[in-house]
């Protein structure tokens, strides 16, 4: 048994291990190659987050999905590079919107070079992803465009908030399906499709990615409150400080409105105050870390991960299927 990829995924087959390791190494080289520019400063900015590391969660799913066809088919690695470049581009933009100072344990691009450079670097990465996509054919371009539209729509819906009468939790889960689920779904779809897997397998791995992506983001919501910066690679409580209504906070608000407990109402009042104050921010974090709303968010994470696992049932048994199932456990473990 060998540990590879994000989360310390254990692979129990030498052939699968070799395919995954080879594929991820090729993706890493492809990311660096795709972000080179004739302008040295652009190269530095574009490779800033690549060199900071990262889990390469989406490329790993591409590699595992490709096991249901030919994992060495020519489109597999480039499609993994596309999804990771797209993800990286959104991180540059997210950090500007969130005014984040840390990403992956290093200064965020906006903290280091300013918002304008960070936004334009994200745009540069989108452009390079599109260039690679053009060589993968019109169907790949269409799939990526649809996913990107869903991603942006999810971000806009998050910013706009739920319409009147809409359950904020339901609204938020729709947001996550677009913001995160869409690109992870494409990872499963590209891996299977580029490897020449059967259409039914492509559909299964697309659905798997959608649900796993949502679980992954819910785990991030829990980590934003429960972890320290060493564990998560970013400043704890960033979403809280920016007023982003993550799932633990939404559960808290619902419980406070439903039950009216004084301690819950007091915590909601703290949340609604000025969280740029470090002492107030620390107090909110401390209280949320022991509040039942955080455990409820963990249970939601488990539910989506189990739904992802259930979609895999029709696939033939084997090491690749087992690895995809283990990813569901690994995502849940992050929120543990």
From TrEMBL:
UniProt keyword Chloroplast present: no
Gene3D superfamilies tied to this protein: Farnesyl Diphosphate Synthase
One example of a Gene Ontology biological process annotation: isoprenoid biosynthetic process
Superkingdom field: Bacteria
EC assignment: the record states 2.5.1.90
- Please name the source species: Streptomyces hundungensis
Q: Name one GO molecular function term.
A: metal ion binding
- Family indicated by similarity: Belongs to the FPP/GGPP synthase family.
* CDD domains named in the record: Trans_IPPS_HT
User: What cofactor does its activity depend on?
Assistant: Mg(2+)
Name this protein carries in UniProt? Octaprenyl diphosphate synthase
InterPro entries from the xrefs?
A: Isoprenoid_synthase_dom_sf, Polyprenyl_synt, Polyprenyl_synt_CS
PROSITE patterns per record: POLYPRENYL_SYNTHASE_2
Alphabetic keyword roster: Magnesium, Metal-binding, Transferase
A Pfam family cross-referenced in the UniProt record is: polyprenyl_synt
């Amino acid at each position: 048994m060998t540990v590879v990829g994000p989360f310390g995924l254990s692979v129990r087959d030498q052939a699968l291990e070799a395919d995954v390791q080879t594929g991820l190494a090729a993706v890493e080289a492809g990311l660096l190659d795709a972000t080179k520019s004739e302008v040295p400063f652009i190269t530095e900015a574009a490779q800033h987050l690549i060199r900071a590391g990262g889990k390469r969660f989406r490329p790993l799913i591409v590699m595992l999905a490709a096991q249901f066809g030919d994992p060495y088919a020519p489109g597999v690695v480039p499609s993994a590079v596309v999804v990771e470049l797209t993800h990286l581009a959104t991180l540059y933009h997210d950090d500007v919107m969130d005014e984040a100072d840390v990403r992956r344990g290093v200064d965020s691009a906006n903290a280091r070079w300013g918002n304008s450079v960070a936004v334009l670097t994200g745009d540069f990465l989108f452009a390079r992803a599109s260039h690679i996509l053009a060589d993968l054919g019109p169907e790949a371009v269409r799939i990526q465009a649809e996913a990107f539209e869903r991603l942006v729509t999810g971000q806009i819906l998050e910013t706009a908030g739920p319409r009147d009468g809409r359950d904020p939790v339901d609204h938020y889960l729709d947001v996550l399906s677009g913001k995160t689920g869409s690109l992870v779904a494409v990872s499963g779809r590209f891996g299977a499709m580029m490897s020449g897997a059967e259409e039914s397998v492509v559909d299964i791995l697309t659905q798997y990615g959608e649900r796993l992506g949502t679980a992954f983001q819910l785990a991030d919501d829990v980590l934003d409150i429960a972890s320290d910066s060493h564990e998560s690679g970013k400043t704890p409580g960033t979403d809280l400080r920016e007023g982003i209504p993550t799932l633990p906070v939404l559960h808290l608000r619902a419980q406070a409105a439903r039950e009216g407990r004084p301690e819950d109402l007091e915590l909601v009042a703290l949340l609604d105050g000025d969280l740029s104050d470090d002492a107030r921010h620390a107090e909110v974090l401390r209280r949320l870390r022991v509040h039942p709303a955080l455990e409820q968010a963990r249970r939601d994470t488990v539910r989506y991960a189990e739904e992802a696992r259930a979609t895999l049932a029709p696939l033939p048994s084997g090491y690749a299927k087992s690895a995809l199932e283990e990813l569901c456990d690994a995502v849940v473990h992050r929120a543990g």
